[in-house]
Design brief:
The complex is a heterotrimer of chains A (390), B (366) and C (155). Chain B has 12 helices and 2 strands; from the N terminus they run ααααββαααααααα. With 366 residues, chain B is mainly alpha-helical. Classes of the chains: A alpha+beta (390), B mainly alpha (366), C alpha+beta (155). Chains A and C meet through helix 2, helix 5 and helix 6 of A and helix 1 of C. The complex binds iron/sulfur cluster (SF4) (2 copies). One iron/sulfur cluster binds next to helix 2 of chain C.
């Protein structure tokens, strides 16, 4: 659909409040039990009527010491815990930690294993983006697109269930490869699912993305411009939606991403200005298209061979050393820093979750928004609280 | 309804008087009228609300590729009843910091405001509870009355989310009263009466081109925009999506009824559907010919002139259509923001409705 | 003024486009699965509640050792040459369903099964003793275990 009028932020209410209509300030506790906080985020909001004067995200309600737990368990045992950090993109988390240990220990992953990692991770990215886009629609009051997206997401989950055995927490990628080869006919079903999702993208866009009310609610609203994103080290769709072309799959290819031909969509798109809620939302939907491209290519060119080498057992000791690996998770750059002292357990395993950095923008960028726009900001930044608190 | 109810209440009053052994006086009449009113509420209004809730859920389900309620009773028909029983059985929580008298009163005000609207609606030839000369005016006043209840709820809850919900409600409904009223004036001017019966009668004869929205063809120029304005303002007045800001669940938790539980919550829940239905009814009377069918059979001299079931059928069809369209809209559109709601009201609907009003007056003079 | 009309028209148009997407769904088949009546297809790889072949277990404690959350509690007794299990409890309040316990088992007697639902009113009800032969997920020698390939560690 081509836009017949371009919508900027001309209809946006000026946030400045004239002195004579200022009212008593109110403090709102947005969360931890609030429908729009995506988990257990608590945001303390200071408002003048509906206008936000300041806000402070208070995190830590979901803190589970993930890093410390991983450091206190052997390598094999620690792996299932990273699934629980960003529970919507758990395969991408597994990929991050697997890559860092493999890099430190010099483990080679067979090509077929790498491709299977890419396929599953990209499916995971698609279903995570479907969830985020739908959730954002829900925050804007549109229930129906959310359920449509859930429908396709469910199909993707079933595909992942078939190969990994889990529905949300997959524990599929292991040090040295993946656990299991693709079952009979699975690749064909994946390609079919890609077509289904591709076919429904127009439906979501026409129903939600290009709806006039949705455009009015999101275009030019909750701006996170380039400099803000850089200042707060915000990554992922937020950064690309703001117009900075950075995607580690292209910039620092890992796990055979260099083999695939795909674009990196960068905002601003048809409407709005770079870095507004609408562009972040649109960014996710464009990224779904690109991920589908990668999945199709990987399925078509899947090499033969082993899916992984099983060097890492319970008693495995990583050679002393350290490594740092950054990967592109659905919500931004997920990186691990790993130090080994030669023992059975990691000496240090530091995770840098994208949500944790992305959430920091709330504190300054929420000023002057209306309460409903604050919801749009939280929704379009798309944080997973499991990853913020870890 | 009243036409039938009057003899009933007289009979009950007589019966009561005989029971006690006193001559019938105003006291017994009052009790009898209360009984009849309760009966009407129980028999007519509650099923209307419950049916509305059921249809909404079923529609929402199917539109979202789900099934909707289908467990309790055949096709889930008893689901809303089961929910009602659950609400009745729930604890009625009144937090100590609330303004208790207002908090208790608010649901009733909303309930009365929403359900009284049915009084002035002409359902079929001869079936109208209160054939008032100022039916349109009373209806508009009742919508404003409901707002008071919601503000009371928002204020007395002593909860910031509720307060914001209440404030949004006032801002929204009071503003939308203007385009709603002005758009309603177009049919009033055209028909020359404020009585809903009079407006319906005016649209009889000539079938679909007797209806005000398409009257003689050329009336459509003003009446179609007026109809759209009335429809949109009606949505806003009934707090339906995309104007459901007072209870915007992803922003204000549950808005003005955050603190309500049990049947008091139900008292907010049912009137929403009642208001939707009565607004749909008024829209169909004002613009779509009320109980007149599109073929001209119910007009003067037609086959079905003054046949009550024929009229009831057409009134029911039109109202249901409007009601269902409101449901479809709700499950399609995202929610607006409060300043955009105001923008739409004052910068789009109000000037447009004024233009329609002037246009109607001009056409009337022709 | 032109913009004013264009905006109204754009709003109306996108609303109608939205309706043209949602309303046809009224006449389509729902996607929902009627869960207790229609059971979803469980893939062979599903990591649900464990299946346990009691006669094969040699009480070597390998599974208990690798479990990241220590949720397997084993007690045994040596009778003659063989160890007899007195208790093989898995605490499902803790279990991660990671299938790590299936991997080191020398006799492949603990496997992940297809059952995904487990409910109870108390926490004790979700601690399941697999040494009890009455347990529906404990299998004796010669019984056909569903989904035996769930142990994927070895090929
Ligand atoms: S599945 Fe994982 S957590 Fe559960 S008992 Fe086995 S090893 Fe322990
Ligand atoms: S590893 Fe296998 S054989 Fe050893 S105790 Fe566990 S279930 Fe029994």
């Amino acid at each position: 659909m081509t836009p017949d009028i371009k919508i900027d932020h001309d209809e946006r209410a000026a946030p400045a409040i004239p002195r004579d209509v200022q009212t008593e300030e109110m403090i709102f506790n947005l969360g931890p039990q609030h429908p729009a906080t995506h988990g257990v985020l608590r945001v303390v909001v200071r408002t003048d009527g509906e206008i936000v004067l300041g806000c402070q995200p208070l995190i830590g309600n979901l803190h589970r010491c993930a890093e410390k737990i991983i450091e206190s368990l052997s390598y094999v045992q620690g792996l299932p815990y990273v699934d629980r950090m960003d529970y919507l993109g758990s395969l991408n988390n597994e990929l991050g930690i697997a890559l860092v240990v493999e890099k430190a220990a010099g483990i080679e992953v067979p090509k077929r294993g790498q491709y299977l990692r890419v396929i599953t991770c990209e499916i995971n990215r698609v279903i995570s983006h479907l969830f985020s886009a739908g959730q954002f629609g829900l925050d804007m009051g549109a229930f129906t697109p959310f359920l449509y997206m859930f429908r396709e997401r469910e199909e993707g989950i079933l595909l992942l269930n078939e190969i990994t055995g889990g529905r949300l927490l997959y524990h599929y990628i292991r040090y040295g490869g993946v656990t299991r080869d693709a079952p009979e006919g699975w690749l064909g079903r994946v390609v079919k699912w890609c077509d289904v999702v591709d076919g429904h993208l127009d439906e979501y866009n026409n129903l939600l993305t290009y709806n006039r009310i949705f455009l009015n609610r999101t275009c030019g609203v909750a701006l996170l411009q380039k400099d803000v994103c850089l200042k707060y080290a915000a990554t992922g769709p937020i950064l690309r939606g703001a117009g900075i072309k950075r995607d580690l799959r292209k910039d620092m290819p890992y796990s055979s991403y260099e083999d695939f031909d795909f674009e990196i969509p960068v905002g601003p798109f048809e409407h709005g200005v770079a870095g507004d809620s609408w562009n972040r939302h649109r960014q996710r939907l464009y990224e779904i298209e690109e991920s589908l491209k990668i999945i199709r290519q990987a399925c078509a060119n899947l090499p033969d061979g082993d899916v992984g080498n099983r060097k890492v057992t319970r008693a495995w000791k990583a050679p002393p050393g350290e490594a740092y690996v950054a990967t592109e998770a659905p919500r931004g750059e997920l990186s691990f820093y790993f130090i080994s002292d030669g023992g059975r357990k990691p000496y240090r395993m530091k995770a840098r979750g994208p949500s944790f950095n992305n959430i920091a923008v709330l504190e300054t960028e929420a000023r002057g928004l209306m309460l409903a726009d604050l919801i749009a900001l939280i929704g379009s930044v798309d944080i997973t609280l499991g990853e913020v608190d870890r | 309804m009243i036409a039938a109810a009057q003899p009933v209440s007289t009979a009950i009053a007589d019966f009561l008087a005989e029971l006690v052994g006193m001559p019938p006086n105003w006291f017994f009449s009052a009790i009898a009228m209360l009984l009849v009113a309760t009966g009407v509420l129980m028999l007519v209004v509650t099923p209307v609300g419950l049916g509305g809730v059921y249809i909404e859920r079923k529609f929402a389900g199917r539109m979202q590729n789900r099934r909707g309620p289908n467990r309790v009773g055949p096709y889930g028909l008893l689901q809303t009843l089961a929910d009602g029983v659950k609400l009745l059985a729930k604890e009625d929580i009144i937090a100590p910091s609330t303004d208790a008298p207002l908090f208790r009163l608010a649901p009733y005000v909303v309930f009365i405001g929403a359900f009284t609207g049915f009084v002035v609606l002409p359902y079929a030839p001869g079936i109208v509870a209160g054939p008032l000369d100022v039916g349109v005016l009373l209806f508009l006043a009742l919508i404003a009355f409901e707002t008071i209840g919601i503000v009371m709820a928002g204020w007395s809850s002593n909860n910031k989310w509720s307060l914001l919900g209440g404030m949004r409600e006032v801002a929204q409904v009071v503003s939308y009263e203007l385009p709603l009223g002005i758009a309603a004036m177009c049919p009033v001017i055209a028909a020359g009466t404020m009585s809903l019966n009079g407006i319906t009668d005016y649209q009889g004869g000539g079938g679909i081109f007797g209806w005000l929205i398409l009257r003689n063809g050329y009336w459509a120029v003003v009446m179609v925009p007026a109809f759209l304005i009335f429809y949109v303002s009606g949505l806003a007045a009934a707090k339906r999506a995309p104007f459901d800001l007072p209870e915007a669940e992803s922003e204000l938790v549950a808005g003005f009824h955050t603190e309500y539980s049990g049947m008091r919550f139900g008292m907010f829940f049912l009137p929403e559907y009642a208001l939707m239905l009565s607004i749909s009814g008024v829209t169909s009377v004002l613009f779509l010919g009320g109980y007149h069918d599109p073929f001209g059979l119910s007009g003067p001299g037609g086959t079905f002139h003054d046949v009550w079931w024929w009229g009831l059928l057409w009134f029911f069809l039109k109202t249901t259509f409007l009601f269902l369209s409101q449901i479809c809209l709700r499950w399609t559109l995202p929610r607006m923001r409060i300043d955009q709601v105001m923008y739409l009201c004052y910068k789009v609907l109000l000037p447009a409705s004024l233009a329609c009003l002037v246009g109607t007056a001009a056409l009337r003079l022709l | 003024m032109k913009n004013w009309f264009a905006r109204i028209w754009h709003g109306l148009k996108t609303t109608l486009i939205g309706l043209s997407i949602t309303v046809p769904y009224l006449f389509r088949k729902p996607y929902t699965l009627q869960y207790p009546e229609e059971v979803p297809d469980i893939p062979e790889t599903e990591r649900g509640l464990h299946n346990f072949e009691i006669d094969k277990c040699i009480a070597c404690y390998q599974c208990a050792k690798i479990c990241p959350v220590d949720c397997i509690a084993i007690e045994d007794e040596i009778k003659g040459k063989n160890a007899v299990l007195l208790k093989f409890e898995i605490d499902y309040t803790k279990c991660l369903f990671c299938a790590l316990c299936c991997e080191p088992c020398p006799t492949e007697c603990i496997l992940m099964g297809p059952t995904f639902d487990l409910v109870g009113y108390t926490r004790d009800e979700v601690i399941i003793d697999y040494a009890d032969r009455e347990n529906p997920r404990t299998w004796s020698a010669g019984e056909q275990i569903p989904y035996p390939i769930a142990s994927f560690a070895r090929k």
